[in-house]
Amino acid sequence: MKAFLKRKNIVFSAKRYGIDALGAMAQGLFCSLLIGTIVKTLGQQFAIPFLVEVGSYCSAMSGPAMAIAIGYALQAPPLVLFSLATVGYAANALGSTTLSGSAGAGGPLAVLFIAIIAAECGKAVSKETKVDILVTPAVTILTGVGLSALIAPAIGTAASSVGEFVEWATILQPFWMGILVSVSVGIALTLPISSAAICAALGLTGLAGGAAVAGCCAQMVGFAVLSFRENRWGGLVSQGLGTSMLQMGNIVRNPKIWIPPTLAAAITGPIATCLFQFQMNDPSGGVASGMGTCGMVGPIGVYAGWVNDVATGAKAAITGTDWLAMALICFILPAVLSWAIGIACRKMGWIKDGDLKLD
């Protein structure tokens, strides 16, 4: 068996699945859903229907993109790699529902688990028969889609439980709500689950939505600044305007790198809710609350909420304090706090040079 697994390049290890596959999946997500969200947002803000359409196409292909990226990281042969497109689509679609049939938030997480299993099964049978052109795709697809039907909705339900925690946190006093919502939604943004789906399912708006924005911005801007010495300007843009999920492989390798942006979120959350009464009232119903600075969707959503509140009479006008709050909560404080806490962590030896390096 050991010789067979070695010949098939099937390696059961935390590095292969928790670092290589997860890191590749984050890149697949960036090249589909996240870049699509950025393009779509630009199209909506500048009234360019073509960009809105392109963004929708990109977002629709997030499942296949993530699965193929995982297969690439697992060094899957061509027939397995191409077959994972179907597996990714099924896992993402079924993981985006719960066992009760309602909207779930576990699409990316379902893709991660199911694509790994399907890819390894496909690799196991690859070139073992004279009809490889039939057997390998059939085994890969049937394994992946079958598992999607069996367990993806359960994964969607589990991921949505994060949303239930956030919903519970919103009923607390603003100070504690600010901390809990900011930290939990920010962590969800970096994990391979959909923080935007969680916020949308809960309709996370108002003060809770503002706290969610603070947490997501803390993760994205925080990691972008924290890792600047390793990743320079490319990393600043890809994490600050893309996704902090790109750091998941490094987080698995050294969880302590998660401390600075998470502590920053714990600080900016209550500042948003208690000091500035920072709210997210974007008409989208909460999606923007879970996007952070990805394509500037979070700040744009806050601004859209201001405009909507002024139009409905809920807000008299957009003030200088509003703009100050956005600048501090979305950009300045996450950058400064993560940088300062990161220096302390480096001095204590918790974070070493190279720990935040992106491939």
Concise overview:
The protein is 74% helix and 0% strand. The protein has 359 residues and is mainly alpha-helical.
Helix and strand topology:
Layout: H1 2-7, H2 14-45, H3 49-60, H4 62-73, H5 78-95, H6 107-125, H7 132-169, H8 174-190, H9 195-202, H10 206-226, H11 228-242, H12 248-253, H13 259-275, H14 297-312, H15 320-347
Helix pairs in contact: 2-3, 2-4, 4-5, 4-6, 5-6, 5-7, 6-7, 7-8, 7-9, 8-9, 8-10, 8-13, 10-11, 10-13, 10-15, 13-15
- Regions with pLDDT < 50 over 5+ consecutive residues? none
The succession of helices and strands, N to C, reads HHHHHHHHHHHHHHH
Mean pLDDT: 89
Number of domains: 2
Count of DSSP H/I helices? 15
* Total count of strands: 0
Q: Give the fraction of residues assigned to helices.
A: over 70%
What does this entry look like structurally?
The chain has helices spanning 2-7, 14-45, 49-60, 62-73, 78-95, 107-125, 132-169, 174-190, 195-202, 206-226, 228-242, 248-253, 259-275, 297-312, 320-347. With 359 residues, it is an all-alpha fold. The model has no long low-confidence stretch (mean pLDDT 89). The protein has 2 domains: 2-159, no CATH class; 170-347, no CATH class. The chain is 74% helix and 0% strand. The longest helix is centred in the middle third of the chain and has 38 residues, at 132-169.
